[in-house]
Amino acid sequence: MVTVFQWTLGILIALSSLSSVVFSVRSRRQADARLRGLYAARMNVSMGLMLIFIALIQMFLFSGSTVRVIVGALFLLIGLFNLFAGVRNHAYFSRSS
Which domain holds residue 46? Predict the structure, then answer.
């Protein structure tokens, strides 16, 4: 069961990391400001999910040392902030014409 959880989180980290890179490249190459903002928002969502998945691995799959829990909590907070900012920015740029 732990192995399945570990593989699932590993695959999710790889997918969210890949999508973060793809949206970053698209955002930097886009001339239209609205599409650039949308791609940057999607990159933030992907990066937030990646950090949350890393935090879950840190907290649940390894021994509970104090440093590991603190690093996992920091990754979780930064990931939640990126997720929130990306969703907020995506809603803003989706509404703008």
Answer: 2-95
